[in-house]
């Protein structure tokens, strides 16, 4: 079955950097776009960044554009989120998501999330 495991979260000071990783298994990773979402306390989960299956198309939310970079390594079945110039409002649980075709239906799968806390 589809498995996604995030790592790399932690406590960081404002203007600091973190790199999140998501290890994927259970599907043909190179066939699918991948997504990073986040959910702050009391807020809805929001899409932060996406990357096409080949990595050539990347999209970002306005709130992170210019600070975050999504990338992937299809040889390692992994997707990454490089986060620079972190702000207090970036504090959230970050989730990796895949939309995988299972018996003709696209099924969304989520990782367990990794906490990112931006604090001085």
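Sequence proposed for the structure above (120 residues):
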């Amino acid at each position: 079955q589809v498995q996604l495991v995030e790592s790399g979260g932690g406590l960081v000071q404002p203007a600091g950097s973190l790199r999140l990783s998501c290890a994927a298994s259970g599907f043909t990773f190179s066939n699918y776009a991948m997504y990073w979402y986040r959910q702050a306390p009391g807020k809805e989960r929001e899409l932060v960044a996406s990357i096409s299956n080949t990595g050539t198309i990347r999209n970002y939310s306005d709130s992170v554009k210019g600070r975050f970079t999504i990338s992937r390594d299809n040889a390692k079945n992994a997707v990454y989120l490089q986060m620079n110039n972190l702000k207090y409002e970036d504090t959230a649980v970050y989730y990796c998501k895949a939309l995988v075709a299972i018996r003709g239906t696209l099924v969304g799968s989520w990782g367990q999330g990794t906490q990112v806390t931006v604090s001085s």
